[in-house]
Amino acid sequence: HSTVYGSTKSLMDWQYLAGAINKLKDLENSISSIYSTKENVLIEIHRITHRQFTWEHKPNTGDIAIYWKIFSDSDLKRLISNEIGITVDELYIISLALLGSFLDNFILWYPPNIQINGITKKKLAVFLGHFCKEIDELNEVLKKELQMNDKYVYAFHSLKGFPLIKININNRDALICPIPTLLFRRITEGIYYEICNAPNFDNVFGGSFQNYIGEMMQNANPNALVYPEAHYGKPEKSTADWVLSDKSAL
Q1: DSSP states of 91-151 as a string?
Q2: pLDDT of the residue at 3
Q3: For residue 44, what pLDDT is reported?
């Protein structure tokens, strides 16, 4: 909420950055002292692990491969394309290109000079329509989401949903990505929340995940037999999703 012009202090100066972070931590501690009690201390510890451990899992190519594999199932691929407006491959090409850019640059002038086959400014605009907001609009949303209670550091904030921000810098339109890790999560685990309300989502996503698990089981156990789900009887019943069999056990 700082003013844009006229200030003599800058977060680019370490002492002011450290001071701002310490003040935020002091506020968090003050709030915790009000809401943390002997009765709920174990619940609080449980909440802290969910909040902190996620940052210990760093973005990696394995996560990209897993989610791309799951989302590339034919039925789920079609559902994602219908909901977002671009294909799964285009989604990942655009997002990885943006991630690569923001790892080296804080600002990407908009519209960018796109030199990727099959990716157009129109497709980029569709992508940004789902993962980007204007800075003034995002500021207003973030203010409304702020909770000065026991949810202060736990409440959802829309930078997770919109990790890309449109901003005007020196009278030029630009994109920024303050926390690239949030963009990475948005296009991996975050895609789930983009499509979870779509018609027939449960069956489509469940089937894709089941197929993925089966393929991984077969690749990881080349000397075992892997049996897929079977259907039998009237009314029809189903076996377990997968059965793994070797000489010692099922």
Answers
A1: HHHHHHHHHHHHHH-SEEESS----STT--HHHHHHHHHHHEEEHHHHHHHHHHH---STT
A2: 59
A3: 78
Mean pLDDT of 152-156: 90
Helix (H) or strand (E) holding 175: strand 172-176
**CA separation for the pair 152, 48 (Å, rounded):** 12
What is the Cα–Cα distance from 195 to 210, expressed in whole angstroms? 18
Closest CA to 215 of 246, 241, 184: 241
Among 158, 122, 156, 120, which Cα is nearest to 139's?
158
192: left (phi over 0), alpha (psi -120 to 50) or beta: alpha
The predicted structure's pLDDT at residue 110: 95
Pairing of strands 237-238, 242-245: unpaired
> 6 — alpha (psi -120 to 50), left (phi > 0) or beta?
left
Q: How far apart are CA 29 and CA 156, in angstroms?
A: 19
Report d(CA 115, CA 138) in Å as an integer. 29
39/163 Cα distance (integer angstroms): 36
What DSSP character marks residue 216?
Answer: H
